[in-house]
């Protein structure tokens, strides 16, 4: 395993090696998931993403542009995996792209944004994308100083007119809906989101 023989996070990388890693990360999402992405663990430690029967097909279908519905046992890493995909797309895999997220509660929205921000904070310094000019708060991330990518979030709306406006105007090819069985007025919000998504794609 290259990770054990040549740890990516060692301190003696040359500038050329760092440049090569940047290029590889942008071209090869599998390299990102295997060697770059680190997940927070208990006690302040970190761990690498562990491949399993859920996340391998999820990655494959996503990068083959195949629509997927993922149903997975609770507390087995579904949220971490889907947010890892969004982190890759946001920081390395796209340019001038809007990624939209709709969930049933503000708590889930805040947790999703926080996970993505945490992933970025654990990148090696030469891969960090956030600058002081960017918008990086609890509800959205906008990399206006580099890729112009945006991560826009929304929560379910109980009022029909408000539900119709969810993500309206966000022409987004990458859309993630979480806890869709518990989203009020999902049909109204989904119709708006899908129309914008089709136009972007």
Descriptive notes:
The chain is an alpha/beta fold. Helices cover 43% and strands 13% of the residues. α2 crosses α3. It is globular.
Summarize the structure.
This protein is of the alpha/beta class and 201 residues long. It has helices at residues 2-5, 15-27, 29-36, 55-63, 78-93, 106-121, 160-164, 186-200, and strands spanning 38-40, 46-48, 98-103, 135-136, 140-142, 150-155, 174-177.
Topology:
Blueprint: H1 2-5, H2 15-27, H3 29-36, E1 38-40, E2 46-48, H4 55-63, H5 78-93, E3 98-103, H6 106-121, E4 135-136, E5 140-142, E6 150-155, H7 160-164, E7 174-177, H8 186-200
Parallel strand pairs: 3-6, 3-7
Antiparallel strand pairs: 1-2, 4-5, 5-6
Helix pairs in contact: 2-3, 4-5, 5-6
Radius of gyration from the alpha-carbon trace, in angstroms = 17 Å
Helical content stands at 40-55%
How many β strands by DSSP? 7
The main sheet comes to: 5 strands, mixed
Q: Tell me, what's the shape? A: globular
Spatial sequence of strands, sheet with the most strands: 4-5-6-3-7
The H-and-E topology, N to C, reads as: HHHEEHHEHEEEHEH
Q: For this entry, what is the oligomeric state of its chains?
A: single chain
Count of helical stretches = 8
Regions with pLDDT < 50 over 5+ consecutive residues?
Answer: none
Average the pLDDT over all residues and give the rounded result.
89
User: How far apart lie the N and C ends?
Assistant: 37 Å
Q: From the helix content, strand content and strand pairing, which structural class follows? A: alpha/beta
Residue fraction in strands: 5-15%
């Amino acid at each position: 395993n290259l990770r054990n023989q040549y740890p990516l996070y060692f301190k003696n990388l040359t500038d050329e090696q760092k440049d090569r890693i940047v290029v590889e990360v942008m071209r090869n999402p599998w390299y990102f998931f295997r060697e770059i992405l680190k997940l927070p663990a208990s006690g302040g430690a970190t761990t690498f993403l562990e491949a399993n029967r859920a996340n391998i097909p999820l990655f494959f279908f996503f990068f083959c542009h195949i629509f997927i519905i993922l149903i997975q046992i609770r507390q087995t890493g579904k949220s971490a995996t889907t947010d890892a995909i969004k982190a890759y797309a946001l920081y390395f895999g796209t340019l001038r792209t809007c990624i939209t997220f709709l969930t049933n509660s503000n708590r889930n929205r805040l947790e999703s944004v926080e996970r993505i921000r945490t992933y970025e904070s654990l990148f090696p310094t030469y891969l960090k994308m956030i600058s002081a000019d960017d918008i990086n708060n609890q509800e959205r991330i906008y990399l206006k100083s580099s890729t112009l990518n945006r991560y826009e979030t929304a929560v379910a709306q109980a009022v029909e007119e408000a539900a119709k406006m969810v993500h309206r105007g966000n022409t987004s090819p990458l859309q993630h809906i979480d806890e869709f069985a518990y989203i009020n007025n999902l049909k109204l919000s989904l119709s708006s989101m899908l129309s914008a998504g089709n136009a972007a794609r």
